[in-house]
Amino acid sequence: MDTGSAPRTETPPNRAHRGPHISHDSNEDRELLPLLGVDDVSGILGIPKATLYRWHSMSNAGDRVGPPAFRVGRYLRYSLKDLARYIDDLRHGIS
Predict the structure, then answer these.
(1) Of 40, 20, 32, 24, whose CA–CA distance to 81 is shortest?
(2) Kind and range of the H or E element at 70?
(3) Rounded to whole angstroms, how far apart are CA atoms 85 and 83?
(4) Band of the pLDDT at 29, cuts 50, 70, 90?
(5) CA-CA distance, 36 to 31, in Å (whole number)?
(6) How confident is the model at residue 2 (pLDDT cuts 50, 70, 90)?
(7) 36-86: per-residue pLDDT in tens?
(8) What is the Cα 79 distance to its own chain's centre?
(9) How far apart are CA 10 and CA 24, in angstroms?
């Protein structure tokens, strides 16, 4: 008996969504963690957002100022792992 609803179709197994592909280095497993924005890092470090933007603009390939950051489109982003390493370096007087 036809109920008037459209027939259900299933996604073929070879086309099922498996999430983003993350490549792994042979020596190290990588985990995809959320990226932090300027507001997040500013709050964690207790410094103004303008300082983070200034540090990023002052950094070049050889000399880094502040925590490592990169652009995603027009937005500045920080990896949680890089920020933790930066804080550890500050604690040990390396940075």
Answers:
(1) 32
(2) strand 70-72
(3) 5
(4) low
(5) 15
(6) low
(7) 999 999 999 999 999 999 999 998 767 889 999 999 999 999 999 999 999
(8) 5
(9) 31
Q: Is the pTM of this model over 0.70?
A: no
Determine the Cα angle at 46 with ends 85 and 60, to 5°. 50
Q: Which tokens in the block code for residue 24?
A: 């792994």
N-term to C-term CA, the chain = 73
For residue 95, count CB atoms less than 10 angstroms from its CB and return exposed for 0-12, middle for 13-18, buried for 19 or more.
middle
State the CB neighbour count (10 A cutoff) for residue 47: 13
* Structure tokens that stand for 89 in this block: 């370096």
81's CB contacts (< 8 A; 6+ apart) are 33
Name the DSSP class of 28: -
Q: How far apart are CA 33 and CA 77, in angstroms?
A: 12
Q: Which H or E run contains 76? A: strand 75-77
